[in-house]
Structures are given as structure tokens and as C-alpha cells.
Amino acid sequence: MKRKVQQLTNLVVTISLFSGRPNPQWSLTKQQADGWIQYWNKADLSEYAVPLASKLGYSGCRVQKNKHSYWVIFNSCVSFYDYDTVISKSDPGREMEFFLLRTASSETKNLLAEMKVID
């Protein structure tokens, strides 16, 4: 059974860079938020949660829904945390992750390209 999230707005994306600089952060537009929810709703469930990063550099991104609900995206996996519940889905080809990264500012995309996260 797939767990669906309703359409919403006010999603905030934060990229974890561990670069000594502040992590880039921005809000999704309503259209981008709707696109993100469509990706989430159609993704297949996974038994694996996003692993905690233990390296310098890029270690995925986070989408904050509200104070207690957020997604963590990294390494072909997306996990949604809502209070004490965790639902994970697979992200083959990192489509969901790259969708979010493409919504970043030009400056952030240039930084991600320098770090060889995106082309």
C-alpha cells in the first residue's frame, strides 16, 4: 500500500553540503511542491531508510513540510518522517532528488556542479 501525501505548499528545501558554508535553503513554488508530491505519491515503497551521511561534501537534501514532518533524500532513497513514523520509498535514477536540485537558484546549482553533484 502506498502512503499518499495531499497537495500542499510552503515546502522548504535544504541541501546538506558540509562545506563550511551555510547550507543552501529555499522554498518551493506551489507548482514545484505539487510536482514533488506527485513524485512521492507514485514512488514505490522501500524497506531501507536514508542512511546518515558520514562524509564531507554533499549528503543529500531535506524537504521540511512542517515542524514535525519532513523528507530526507539521498542515494536513491527518500524517507518521510512524521513524528514517530518513517515511510521510505525508492528513488531509482535519483529522479526525485534531481527534481529538487533543479529547483535551486543558479548560484546553488553552480555550487552543486562544482562539487560534481549535478552536471
Would you kindly provide a written description of the structure presented here, covering whatever features stand out?
It is a single chain. The chain has helices at residues 30-42, 95-101, 106-114; strands spanning 12-15, 25-27, 61-66, 69-74, 77-82, 85-90. It has 119 residues and is an alpha+beta fold. The chain has a 6-stranded antiparallel β-sheet, covered by helices on one side. Strand 3 and strand 4 form a beta hairpin. The radius of gyration is 14 Å and the shape is globular. The mean pLDDT is 88.
How is the main sheet built? 6 strands, antiparallel
Distinct helical segment count: 3
Helix and strand run: EEHEEEEHH
Work out the helicity level.
Answer: 10-25%
Which structural class do you get from the secondary structure elements?
Answer: alpha+beta
- End-to-end Cα distance, whole Å, is 35 Å
- pLDDT average, as an integer? 88
Strand content of the residues, in percent?
25-35%
**Low-confidence blocks of residues:** none
Global Rg: 14 Å
Question: Could you say which overall geometry the principal axes of the C-alpha atoms support?
Answer: globular
Total beta strands: 6
For the largest sheet, list the strands in their spatial order: 2-1-3-4-5-6
Secondary-structure map with pairings?
Layout: E1 12-15, E2 25-27, H1 30-42, E3 61-66, E4 69-74, E5 77-82, E6 85-90, H2 95-101, H3 106-114
Helix pairs in contact: 1-2
Features:
119 residues; six-stranded antiparallel beta sheet; 6 strands
